[in-house]
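User: quick one, sequence for these tokens?
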């Protein structure tokens, strides 16, 4: 099987790591994700990962309850580092050399993010987990994913979620919602579809970086997307 992309940025939500739990990291989920990544990496694909922190702490939710927004966002960024380390552990148990690079320096647990170093790690066949968001409050991990994808010159952003694409409405709440096979960045913004936040979508649109939204819980889906199969929904220019 041949890979359609040579370098990809995989965006995972923190909630994806909870599994059926209400909170925290389910090791069986990180193991499954690690196996999927190991499988595509064995095809020679270079993989960068940006991970959210919503399973541990949500900056927006805390600020809505009165916490200072910047403080809450920094706490959320630290939560992504915890998730990054959990994923690194699972990846290395699956024989994949991994580096966690953080936008906020914490040298005892991870390397600081330096763009050229990140690219070198990828070229050497290591998986790079980008943690601590952009390092700035008021920006989401979606925006961090778009930013890191541009910086490492990824071919595509793969957004792994618990639904199998983008729908006209939330399919969990609206059974009649229909799925888009392809959709333009502008339509995503105009229709307010909850794919990634507007800043991330705009960044991808300006740089013509396609996004594929797919169900990460289905075993083998990551490999199918990488091989060019029609999985999930593709967001691209019209």
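Assistant:
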């Amino acid at each position: 099987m041949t890979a359609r992309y040579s370098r990809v940025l995989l965006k995972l939500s923190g909630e994806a790591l909870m599994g059926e739990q209400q909170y925290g990291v389910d090791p069986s989920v990180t193991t499954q994700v690690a196996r999927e990544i190991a499988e595509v990496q064995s095809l020679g694909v270079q993989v960068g990962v940006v991970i959210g922190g919503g399973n541990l702490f949500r900056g927006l939710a805390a600020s809505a309850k009165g916490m200072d927004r910047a403080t809450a966002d920094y706490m959320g960024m630290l939560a992504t580092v915890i998730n990054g380390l959990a994923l690194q552990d699972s990846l290395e148990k699956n024989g994949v050399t991994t580096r966690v690079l953080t936008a906020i320096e914490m040298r005892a647990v991870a390397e600081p993010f330096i763009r050229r170093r990140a690219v070198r790690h990828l070229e050497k066949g290591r998986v790079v987990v980008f943690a601590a968001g952009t390092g700035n409050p008021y920006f989401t991990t979606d925006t961090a994913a778009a930013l890191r994808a541009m910086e490492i010159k990824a071919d595509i952003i793969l957004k792994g979620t618990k639904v199998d694409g983008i729908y006209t409405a939330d399919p969990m709440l609206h059974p009649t919602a229909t799925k888009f096979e392809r959709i333009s960045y502008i339509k995503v913004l105009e229709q307010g579809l909850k794919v990634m936040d507007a800043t991330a979508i705009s960044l991808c649109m300006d740089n013509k970086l396609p996004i594929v939204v797919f169900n990460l819980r289905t075993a083998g889906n990551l490999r199918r997307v990488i091989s060019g199969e029609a999985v999930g929904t593709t967001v691209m220019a019209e």
